Amino acid sequence: ALLYYLDGEILEEEPKVSAQDRGYNFGDGVYEVIRSYRGKLFALEDHVERLFRSASYIDLKLPYSPDEMSKLITDFYNKSGNPEAAVYLQITRGAAVRNHTYERGMKPVVFMYSKPLDDKPLSYYEGGFKAITVHDGRWDMCQAKTICLLYNILAKQKAKDAGCDEAIFVRDNGEVTECGSSNLFIIKDGILKTHPADNRILSGITRKYVIEVARKNGVHFRNEIFYKEDLFTADEVFMTGTLSEISPFVEIDGKTVGNGKPGEITLKLLHSFYEMVRSV
Ligand code: PLP
């Protein structure tokens, strides 16, 4: 069942936080979303490591060591008893009378929930998804997973209003970075490419595992910048994310991708990844 955690307390009812919380006033905080399969959290260490990196980008000192954080998340998740779950973890800088600047040494507010998920069958992913391209005018710290998601929210809403599943971000120079809440890969002439993990994208945990799966399957891979026009000449395009796993795109801006069905290499990666994460 849906279970909550706030600052040391586990609750079945939604907890309340201060209206002066800097997360509420400024979006001043970081977060993670961790997926569990068959009763076990997937890639927990990667998520905890990224959480600490995100916190350090925003000058936020976390009140735990990485090991303590992992244990806190695992203990909470185990209590929730959800074999298939999304665990959301948010740490904000804390509560104080509103002021842009902050005092170091404030007490961060740790919030989690564990939400049961329906495990998606392979056929769900094999059906394919649609995207639109949107302008990427985000800041230069996209590598930090912060709760300031307004740009992503507006992009994803635009996609939804257009009857699509995701928004693909394109910068002023035509460079394709990632999606509203996932990373993007293209395949052209047998070569798999995704944007390098720099300050313009969030370095996805799924992205990392998909690259590993590609290597294991002998798929040629490059961390390489590509452009909007490449989306329309690519043979295959897919996104990756903790909750979207590997989701193939069959239509972008109303144009068919490849032959209009998930491509051969994408399906190979999808099957291999799908199996790997569930064989725990
Ligand atoms: N990019 C953005 C902007 C995201 O918000 C996310 C996940 O929420 C991702 C990429 C994918 O990251 P992960 O695979 O770690 O879930």
Summary, kept brief:
Helices cover 30% and strands 29% of the residues. The chain is α+β, with helices and mostly antiparallel strands and 280 residues long. The strands form 2 sheets. Strands 7, 8, 9, 10, 11, 12, 13, 14 and 15 form a 9-stranded mixed beta sheet that branches. Strands 2-1-6-5-3-4 form a 6-stranded antiparallel beta sheet.
Describe the structure.
The chain is an alpha+beta fold and 280 residues long. The protein folds into two domains: 3-116, Aminotransferase class 4, branched-chain amino acid transferase, N-terminal domain (D-amino Acid Aminotransferase, Chain A, domain 1), CATH 3.30.470; 122-278, D-amino Acid Aminotransferase, Chain A, domain 2 (Alpha-Beta Barrel). The chain is 30% helix and 29% strand. It has eight helices and 15 strands. The chain has helices at residues 22-26, 44-57, 66-80, 122-126, 150-161, 205-216, 228-233, 264-278, and strands at residues 3-6, 9-11, 29-37, 40-41, 85-92, 109-116, 129-135, 166-170, 176-179, 183-188, 191-194, 220-223, 236-241, 245-252, 255-256. The strands form two sheets. Strands 7, 8, 9, 10, 11, 12, 13, 14 and 15 form a nine-stranded mixed beta sheet that branches. It has a six-stranded antiparallel beta sheet with strand order 2-1-6-5-3-4. A hairpin with a 2-residue loop joins strand 10 (183-188) and strand 11 (191-194). The longest helix is centred in the N-terminal third of the chain and has 15 residues, at 66-80. It is globular, with a radius of gyration of 19 Å. The structure holds pyridoxal-5'-phosphate. Its EC number is 2.6.1.21. Homodimer. Belongs to the class-IV pyridoxal-phosphate-dependent aminotransferase family. Its cofactor is pyridoxal 5'-phosphate. GO terms for molecular function: D-alanine-2-oxoglutarate aminotransferase activity; pyridoxal phosphate binding.
